[in-house]
Amino acid sequence: MALYGRRCRSPVGWFEVGEVALIGTKLVHEAMEKVLLIRERLRTSQSRQKSYADVRRRDLEFDVHDWVYLR
Questions:
Q1: Measured over all CA atoms, what is the biggest interatomic distance in the chain, rounded to whole angstroms?
Q2: Are 31 and 3 spatial neighbours (Cβ–Cβ below 8 Å)?
Q3: Distance between CA atoms of 25 and 34, rounded to whole angstroms?
Q4: Residue 34's CB: how many other CB atoms inside 10 A?
Q5: Domain boundaries, the chain
Q6: N or C: less crowded end of the chain, CB within 10 Å?
Q7: Cα(first)–Cα(last) distance of the chain, in Å?
């Protein structure tokens, strides 16, 4: 989805209009490199968000007769 903006089940839609290419190792390697880059960037952003959330997180403490909202 990150590569194409929608789910892509086959490499048929990977080519530009008018471009004729055979599915080969070059295409597979390019797709694999893009997937690895996406995974690395997702891992980086998740790590950044986790460190930010961990600093701001605090335990909730309630006393008897406290009013709370439940979902």
A1: 72
A2: yes
A3: 14
A4: 12
A5: 21-54
A6: C
A7: 33
